[in-house]
Write a structure and sequence with these properties.
- The structure is a single chain.
- 8% of the residues lie in helices and 64% in strands.
- It has 2 helices and 26 strands.
- The protein has helices at residues 2-26, 32-37, and strands spanning 41-52, 58-70, 75-87, 90-103, 108-119, 124-134, 139-150, 155-165, 170-182, 185-196, 201-204, 208-212, 217-221, 223-227, 232-243, 248-258, 263-266, 270-274, 279-283, 285-289, 294-305, 310-320, 325-336, 341-351, 356-360, 365-367.
- It has a 26-stranded antiparallel β-sheet that branches.
- The termini are far apart.
């Protein structure tokens, strides 16, 4: 009985020792020194990398010709990159470039060198020197030789810095920004311009200028907006306009320029000068018909003829620029320094080329000093 018990104990001890030896023998070795000195990573060759959000939606798909992936930092440096960026599972931008950095930790992709791409929602062609996409913020940032173009609308905007939301179709360009259109031809320049593609608006809250080179027509203002669908340009604050071909200069606080109709509406007090004609006109509101070369003025109109040292006041004035005829109506008061002449009537017609004026009406009153 004792012998059997002793044998059983010996067997248990032997099995325990055997199991302990096997556990020690097959246990994976762990060396902190090796882990600290090791830089884990892998080479990328003609690979496609995809990233998903917490809902399982694709946020980017990147193809790379070659590169290195640093597992410890979750960053890949790649060459020959083609990226497709998504917002809520929908493709918003695709772009290609010379090289790039894929940062999985920050969920951000940078593409550098001759970047070419397209904003899908607005069908906008994109060019830049460098581009960065942040998936969580739906933000596109680019720098260097920026170009946004919408060929079907013949609109192009260039600048040096771009910040935008592709899913919202809203982009702001800064530094030496120029927006151009070929139909009708117009160019708008400013330090900062925002393009609201969805609502077809291009606007700026900083000083801007608008030019129609073929008609030698320029405007500047403190702020402005271009409605690309209605082809309407609104300028606000210290508006200065000049038409070199017609020799007209304008100063006011607000202008509505209807490009297709070739009309300029002047809803606030304004001053018009014509240096070659030595004419200055002030009025409360008005409208210029650019195609017909005609200006209509309404409300306490005052016209000063510097050559005649004369002044005409009226309720309404029509100025036909080609014929040099100015027609004034309502409450006419004509004053000329020579002979201290004063004439009142209902209607007056002035010929600027011949320097003549005729006042008519049911009750014309003339006063002068012989």
């Amino acid at each position: 009985m004792l012998t059997q018990r002793s044998g059983l104990i010996a067997l248990v001890v032997l099995v325990s020792l055997t199991i302990g030896f096997l556990i020690w023998w097959f246990q994976p070795s762990s060396s902190p020194v090796v882990e600290e000195t090791q830089a884990p990573g892998s080479e990328i060759i003609n690979a496609t990398l995809r990233e998903f959000n917490d809902q399982g939606e694709l946020i980017w798909e990147v193809q790379a010709q070659r590169g290195d992936y640093r597992q410890d930092r979750r960053i890949a440096d790649v060459v020959g990159i083609k990226g497709r960026f998504y917002e809520k599972g929908k493709l918003v931008v695709d772009a290609v470039g010379t090289a790039g950095i894929i940062n999985q930790a920050n969920r951000e992709i940078a593409i550098t060198g001759n970047v070419r791409g397209k904003v899908i929602k607005g069908n906008i062609d994109l060019q830049a020197d460098n581009l960065r996409w942040n998936a969580d913020q739906d933000q596109l940032h680019a720098e260097g030789n920026i170009s946004l173009a919408k060929p079907e609308d013949d609109i192009k905007i260039v600048g040096e810095v771009l910040q935008g939301s592709p899913s919202q179709n809203l982009f702001t360009l800064k530094r030496k920004v120029v927006a151009t259109s070929g139909k009708p031809p117009i160019q708008i320049s400013s330090d900062a311009v925002t393009w609201d593609v969805k609502n077809q608006r291009i606007f700026s809250q900083t000083k801007l200028s608008a030019i129609q080179a073929q008609d030698k027509r320029t405007l500047s203002a403190s702020a402005g907006e271009w409605d690309t669908q209605r082809q309407l340009v609104l300028l606000k604050g210290n508006v200065q306009a000049k038409d070199a071909r017609l020799d007209i200069e304008l100063a006011t606080e607000r202008v509505e320029w209807r490009l297709q109709e070739q009309k300029v509406l002047l809803p606030q007090n304004f001053v018009v000068n014509s240096p070659s004609r030595k004419l200055r006109v002030i009025a409360q509101t008005g409208m210029a018909q650019l195609a017909d070369q005609e200006i209509n003025l309404v409300g306490e109109v005052q016209a000063e003829l510097q050559t005649e040292r004369a002044r005409v006041r009226a309720d309404r004035v029509q100025w036909q620029i080609p014929s040099q005829i100015v027609t004034a109506e309502g409450g006419i008061r004509y004053e000329r320094s020579a002979n201290n002449l004063k004439v009142r009537g209902d209607r007056a017609i002035a010929n600027l080329a011949e320097q003549t004026i005729q006042v008519t009406g049911s009750d014309v009153i003339s006063e002068f000093t012989p």
